[in-house]
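One thing: could you explain this record?
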Amino acid sequence: MHTKLLHEGAVYKQASNSVPSWEEVRDYWVQYTLITDAKEDSEYPDSHNLDTLALLHLSDENPTKEQIESKKKEILEEADKVVQENLEEYYIPELLNRYEEAVYRVTEGLDGEDCWRVITLQKGVNPLQLEDLGVFWSFEEEGADAYEGTVTDAHYRFRARIDSDNINKHDTILANTDPSLGDDEMEVRFKKGTPIFVYDLDVLTGSTTHRHDTIPINDWRRA
């Protein structure tokens, strides 16, 4: 079917093609990652040592329960202030840089560029017969790797063309701004079922960095 994909009005699952706002990305990663990182870096007091800290800060040798609770509240308020300062001074500016880079890449820098995806198949399965290649690709060759399979499985690295209209921009930007991944994330995520033009595939042996052969395809597949 492959070439017919463009002539069948390919029905595919619609995914977000909109760029998430900076506020959405900031709030998402602050909630799920950055607040925890900032607390760890500031040695944020936990429930196990908060009582001890409160007692150390109180001059009265026999403080009342109310005094201890008041001091604990004071310590937490000061710790929260430090965390917020760290977020605003270090974490959020770095996230903003990553966001701006990701937005530029998705909206202007990737269209027409190459992308790669490594697929692991059991021995005997013909990779040329695959029609659905998946939505997770990398815009850098070294970013494509096999994450599952056994030593007896076969690995194939597909190379395709990026059409920016088919990128799931929302999820691609979120993936590439993940603070826990640093600069290692090089993902371009397509909308499921969209047609993608595939140039060729590399037959990989041993480690997925070793190319045994390259087979031309120059035909359409689906994400």
User: Anything to note?
Assistant: The mean pLDDT is 83. The beta strands are 114-121, 136-138, 154-161, 187-189, 195-204, 211-222.
